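Q: Predict the assembly, please.
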Amino acid sequence: MLCFSYWAELANRQLRIMPELISFLKKNEINNKVVQVAHRISSDYQHQELVLIGVLKGAFIFLSDLMRHLGIPVKIDFVGVSSYGSGTSSTGTIKLIKKIDIDLTNRDVLVVEDIVDTGLTLAYIVDYLKTLNPKTIKVCALLDKYERREAAIKIDYACHRVAEGFLVGYGLDYNENYRELPEIYRLKL
Ligand code: IMP
Ligand code: MG
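A: Predicted assembly structure:
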């Protein structure tokens, strides 16, 4: 039998690890929003085969949930960029660190991003994807964090809009931490 001190220690560790996290979106709220956006995408792309391009690393959980709620055939690939150092705002310098492997020529492409802040990363990715000659490119973001927007980019599908703050969990990280949390939290800095 596990003794009380074990559970006390575990609770203590949790408190020490996560004191700065404030609940933002619960599991069922995330799920409802993902299902709703998936239905919109499925009805807009009926009879078309869509290529989902996930933006590494943050979008991997969102992409995997989203694609399982789409009622249409999809192919997936990932693009990798680095723009964030270890802080909470962009360094402004964006580098392509993983290119697309599959042929996008004349394909309908949907970029799947975790969160759009200034929009500079997404603008860079869309510019890169355009060079691969797709038929169409649209954008789907889990979170549209709009207050600091600098690039004029259109987010065709957004699950949730938020003005500001730094969010973690459900794939989103702070210094590579918290991605594994099943819910989304606001980080108190
Ligand atoms: P942008 O270029 O300023 O739009 O930054 C977009 C990228 O920064 C996203 O792909 C995220 O990886 C990261 N990012 C921006 N805001 C947050 C946040 O609140 N939490 C976690 N990552 C963020
Ligand atoms: Mg990202």
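The domain at 21-188 is CATH 3.40.50.2020 (Rossmann fold). The mean pLDDT is 90.
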